[in-house]
Amino acid sequence: MDRIDTSHSVWLFDTDRMRFRRAPKGTDLDAPSIDSDWETYFGLEIDEETGAFTVVLNEDGTRLLRSWREVSPEPRSPADATTELSVEVLRNH
Prior knowledge:
By secondary structure, the protein is mostly beta strands. Helix content is 5%, strand content 40%. A four-stranded antiparallel β-sheet has the order 1-2-3-4, with no helix packed on it. A four-stranded antiparallel β-sheet has the order 5-6-7-8. The longest helix is centred in the last third of the chain and has 5 residues, at 87-91. The protein is globular and about 40 Å long. 12% of the residues are buried.
């Protein structure tokens, strides 16, 4: 189980089952979770230099979540909060 802390959440990655869950800070992570708390993922890319990480949500790699580790060297603004990215939107910019 891998863990990534962000300013608002704790991300848990079950690398054996390729699933993750995100819980608000302060949540009891030792409490039992249900299967619907977890979401399948297809890849995780971590930029050690910036603290950014990207979760690939589908096999095609067209749905992504991007966020930053809490220990990121640069403070993040609310506009930099976790968001889902669409490859189609990115292609059109």
